[in-house]
Amino acid sequence: MKKLLYTYSWKIFISLLIAFNILFTHYNLQQLKLDETPEKQLTLHKETIFNGDNEYFLTPVDNYMHQKGWRRSPAVGNAGYIRRVPVYSAIHYVFRSVFDEDNYLFYLKYFQLSLFLVSIFCFSQIALHFLPRNYARFTTSLYAALPIFSVWTFFTITEAVTPELMLFYIFFLLSAKTSQSGKQKFIFYLLSAFILVLLILTRPYSAIAGILLLYCTIQEFRKNRTFFKLLILAYLPALIVWASWVIRNYSITGQPVLLEQAYHPESLDRMKPEFRGLLNFSKCWGVDGAYFNTYHEPFFKMVLSNQNTDSANQFVLSKLPPEIVQEFGADRLTAVLNKHQQALIKQKPYYDSVIAQPSTYFNEQLKTEQAYNELITEYKQKHAFNYWFGSRLLYLKRLMIHSSCAHIYVLSNPENTFLRLVKMGMFAVTVLAYLCLILNTLFLQKKNFFHFLTLVIVPVLFVFFFAFIHREIEQRYMLPIFPVLLIGIGMQAQLMVNFGKRIFRG
After folding, report:
1. Among positive and negative, which fits the CA dihedral 117, 461, 377, 366?
2. Is pLDDT larger for residue 306 or for residue 43?
3. 489 CB-side CA count, 13 A
4. β-bridge mates for residue 49, sequence order
5. Are strands 43-44 and 48-49 parallel, antiparallel or unpaired?
6. Mean predicted confidence (pLDDT) in 296-321
7. Band of pLDDT at residue 445, cut at 50, 70 and 90
8. E strand or H helix at 118, and its extent?
9. Concatenated DSSP letters of 400-457
10. CA dist., res. 124 & res. 135, Å (int)
11. d(CA 287, CA 279)
């Protein structure tokens, strides 16, 4: 009777947490609708939350339905065909095909919210695989209660589904790993591999988590080579989906694009060699991506609108660190920016006429990037430690120390004590999650290598990719793997409690 009462109390408790989270998510959207004005767009049709990345995922559907091809707007050239992987846009296409254009976002957001609710069950089962029941329930409570995940279900970008897809993938992988039935094991591996491909074709860097499937596949090969042959068949549907995308890309563009391509000579966005050169130069000292946009985007627009070129250069120089301007010299940096302007002016007719640029980059673009690369080489020679370690530690700091609520409108500037407490709680959990990742890296026993692989190696690889390789940080980038970090909190709590018990008994 006591056990039943305990279970019943847990169900009531988790239900209340979920209810709070859903109400909070609706409250956040409601405040956005109240504050929206004709001059300040905050929502899409009053149903979902507006984000600057919407165009990447919504315009391919618009263009396809208007016979312009499955590509990002403006629908010119080949760049838009391969700018983003297709799965999240495909979800939009399904809902827009079934429901009318004015209402489909209503059904889409509740579909995404439903995925979140189902993922709570998957999270609880995953947590039980790694942790004792009480610790698993503790971490499940964090996942169910924190608006970190639920709020994104009312957006129309990939973060609306990537944490859920990650949990579905790990859930089916664990089910396959622990199943004693060959038939069930086959089905679970098939589902796990298929969802992994969907996840990768939603957010490509999530392929890091494929290490888990690879490890389990190697283990199956060692245990039962007969079943391993069947396992290849289980992966076939996933491989067909991915291969179809690659073949489609090649048939349209003539290029073997495996996932997506950000930089393309025919595109009409900012991401060209001259952009990459200035960005990589700015990364030398660990520039924040949002701050970089505060000087590159105005510079880009000023040049293309024929404004005073000297003013454009001076604007960029005023945004660079004074010590950088002093070290390289204002004249030298101005000369590089003049090359940058020449590269943009060369492209101006294409921007003005909204036609695709040539299939190869202009010499002015390549020369500009080379000029920036020369600055980077010189910086690395003079400031090797700061380039290889100091700047990357800045990115690591931005990745680990924040409140995970940069995109939660009501928490951007909390108006009352309750909202401030929610924001403080989210900050505490986020920092604790990364602190526990460090502690688990140091102290989690390696006897169960799959546990260590899941809770330490894979999350660390995500962190390493963003802080040390990609070097562009937004809080949402770690969202797919963040549920695993919450389980890591439970693991570290268990280790500390067990350590305390040994000290007390000793």
Report:
1. negative
2. 43
3. 20
4. 43, 155
5. antiparallel
6. 90
7. confident
8. helix 104-130
9. HSS-S-TT-HHHHS--SHHHHHHHHHHHHHHHHHHHHHHHHHHHS-SSSHHHHIIIII
10. 10
11. 9
State phi, psi for 53 to the nearest 5 degrees. -85, 0
In angstroms, the CA 105 to CA 118 distance is: 20
Q: What is the DSSP string of 242-306?
A: HHHHHHHHHHHHSS--SS--S--TT--SS-SHHHHHHHHHHHTTT--HHHHHHHHHHHHHHHHTT
Of the candidates 81, 12, 412, the residue with the CA atom closest to the CA atom of residue 250: 81
Interatomic CA distance for residues 337 and 311, integer angstroms:
11
pLDDT digits (tens, 9 = 90+) for 360-382: 999 999 999 999 999 999 999 99
**What pTM value is reported for the model?**
0.94
Nearest to 119, CA basis, from 21, 205, 231: 21
Amino acid in position 148: I
pLDDT at 10: 81
Sign of the four-CA dihedral 461, 464, 470, 476: positive
The secondary structure element, H or E, covering residue 354 is none
Cα(154)–Cα(157) distance, rounded to whole angstroms?
9
Find the radius of gyration of the CA atoms of the chain.
Answer: 25
∠ CA 276-80-75, nearest 5°, is 125
Q: What is the pLDDT of residue 4?
A: 54
The angle at the Cα of 417, spanning 411 to 422, to the nearest 5 degrees, equals 45
- Nearest residue to 189 via CA among 146, 236, 151, 135: 236
- pLDDT tens across 104-158, in order? 999 999 999 999 999 999 999 999 999 999 999 999 999 999 999 999 999 999 9
Residues 6+ apart with CB under 8 A from 179: 185, 188
* CA proximity to 127, closest of 114, 143, 111: 143
For 287, phi then psi, to 5°, come to -65, 145
Per-state percent for the chain, helix, strand, coil, to nearest 5: 75, 0, 25
Q: Which residues pair with 37 in a beta bridge?
A: 40
What pLDDT is stored for residue 177 in this prediction?
Answer: 92
Residue 305 token pair? 């609108």
For residue 384, give Cα distances in angstroms to 259, 324, 387, 481, 502.
33, 15, 5, 31, 46
Measured between its terminal Cα atoms, the distance across the chain in Å is: 35
**8 A C-beta contact, residue 309 and residue 303:** yes
Angle between helical axes of 482-505 and 104-130 (0-180°, round to 10): 30
HSE (CB half, 13 Å, CA atoms) of 69?
A: 17
Q: Are 87 and 202 in contact (CB under 8 A)?
A: yes
Maximum separation of any 2 CA atoms in the chain, in Å = 81
The tokens for 405 are 């609520």
Q: Identify the three-state secondary structure at position 48.
A: strand
- CA distances from residue 228 to 59, 191, 213, 220, 385 in whole angstroms, order as listed: 42, 16, 13, 6, 47
